[in-house]
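ugh ok fine here u go
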Amino acid sequence: MVGVASEAKRALRRLARALREEHAADPPSSVLSALSRLPQWGRAGTTLLYLPQGPWEPPTADLVADRLAAGRRVCVPAWVPAAVSGSCVWPEPGTYAPALYAGAAEALANGPLGIPEPANPIWVRPEEIDLFVVPGMLFDRKGRRLGHGKGYFDRILSGRRHDAAVVALAYPWQMTDGDLPDEPHDVAMDAVVFPDGIAGR
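structure:
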């Protein structure tokens, strides 16, 4: 069953990349207005956001600014090189972990996947995070998320508290009508937020 799901995901990622090309010229749209309607957004003391890989991921600069202006902590994923962890159990080397982010004033570097991240990360354990805001390639009405297949966000989410919320940001063209394949390690979203609304499960 897992093998079938993995093959289906590969086919869906090809579809997602084609849709991404089709919408490459679309102007970016903020999700702040819609996201701020979620009670989890107002309650969260520490929020994990992401720094977009490209125009196909909704922008987050205004979300970061909103959180920092409210006196809240913001984290983003940053790569953990082997030299950082040494003999420590956490953060796990060779993957991503949450790091504090100070917004526009933060010195950034490109990680191994070309994603901007804090140049001098200060690590934050996943269990300290109240709200995880993540990107994805495709989503369905049950809150299932199709990522890029590396499992980095899944690893971060595996360490979350049971009461922490997980929300995705997306454009409407990323929502599928059918069900996405589901594997044991996949984490369902509590809501998928679009620039003009919210899809909950």
